[in-house]
Amino acid sequence: MKELAKRVALISLGCAKNLVDSEVMLGYLQHDGYILETDLSRAGVIIVNTCGFIHQAREEAEQQLRSAVRRKRSSPAIRIVAAGCYVQKEGEDLKRRYPEIDYWTGVNDFHHIVQLIEDRTFSPEDRCFLYDHESPRLLSTPPSWAYLKISEGCSHRCSFCTIPKIKGPYRSRPMESIILEAERLADAGIKEINLVSQDSTYYGRDLGLNEGLARLMERLLDTPRLEWIRVLYTYPEEISDTLLEVMRAEKICAYIDSPFQHADPTLIRRMKRGMDGPRALKLIDKIRKRLPQAALRTSLIVGFPGEGRAEFARLKDFVRTASFDHLGVFTYSHELDAPSSILNDNIPNRLKNERRQEIMEIQAEISKRNLKRWVGARLPVLLEGRMPENPGVYVGRTQSQAPEVDGMVLVHVPPQVEIGQAVNQVEIQHSDVYDLSGILIQCGHS
């Protein structure tokens, strides 16, 4: 029984930022002698790091909590920890509905996870946890890449979003801490770091830095053994000429991930966003002139209150004109504690889902057309694994494909090439809707 109590499984839900927090919790647990399990049936402690951002995320979290409770009913010695954003957002209600769960922690005390499950006293923090380079961390991503969180919280006031209420105002990590972590990751064999934040372009503002993200990326260019630097979650209004100039460096992925959310001017104002369709198209044109090889990703919301036929038509026209390389669409989630809750959510879910599907069908044709331009090109590819049914075919990504959210490259590679390497030249031979395939023609790698 004592051995079972030291076996922990962790289920991480939601975004990449949540995953980093989960990896830090795993790091603290491993440091204190806990055995980490991927098989829930072998675990004596089950931790669910929840997401509470939108309705669908909360449904997924509750599904995992119910599953953990069922395991506990059949094995009463199991202990359950509910953690993260959903707990921070609606912890009291969850405690009432799930009395079988043993421990609860929001977003402030991830570093106290060992004390929590060992019933040791600790002083709860009064603000969202933000790790540093000295925090233990157990990576759960493939051996070639990792996320690196540069801040926590958000100081924007988008009307549909509750993140500022859950995590508080924007708080940047000191630049030296980020540099030291990047060096440590590179020393451990990581080839690509993906900078993540609620708004990466806001980085450093609270520290009194001007062009903080650009300055940070310039510093990261000097990290030995690091092949690629990618930045995720940038706000359109804050993409500066200075940042675009820094992103011309070979080591920095020419990849812009920026949520425009919509194109209709009236809806943009209601969302309390700053860039409508016409302004967004001007920015996109500038990006493509400065970074001709840049891949553009955005996220959009359909079904926001007031989105009628005309507003949705403007959004479709925007998607066709912008010709994004990657695009994600969310259906509007009516959050009672978000500023937009005062607006009448009068668009049926069926219509929201139909509109989402319509945008994705438009995007599928755009993606298929865009990917054809790479056929015949020779590109660097980061190798992440092998196809189970064909060990001679590797799965990888180009600089234009971010991990977990974009497509992939299938590469025919000689068997002596190791997983986790960035190979120099893959000749692209075929493209489909979202993926590429090719053959390695130069075996030199990093």
Please, could you describe this protein's structure?
This protein is of the alpha/beta class. It has 3 domains: 2-117, Rossmann fold (3-Layer(aba) Sandwich); 145-372, pyruvate-formate lyase- activating enzyme (Alpha-Beta Horseshoe); 375-445, OB fold (Dihydrolipoamide Acetyltransferase, E2P). The protein is 33% helix and 22% strand. The chain contains 13 helices and 18 strands. The protein has helices spanning 2-5, 16-31, 55-74, 85-97, 113-117, 163-167, 175-187, 212-220, 241-246, 265-270, 277-290, 309-322, 349-371; strands at residues 7-12, 35-36, 45-50, 79-84, 103-105, 145-149, 151-152, 171-172, 192-196, 228-231, 255-257, 295-302, 326-331, 378-387, 390-397, 409-412, 422-431, 436-445. Strands 2-1-3-4-5 form a 5-stranded parallel sheet, with helices on both faces. Strand 3 (45-50), helix 3 and strand 4 form a beta-alpha-beta unit. Helix 11 (277-290) packs parallel to helix 12 and helix 12 (309-322) packs parallel to helix 13 (349-371). The chain is globular, with a radius of gyration of 22 Å. The N and C termini lie far apart (46 Å). The model has no long low-confidence stretch (mean pLDDT 93).
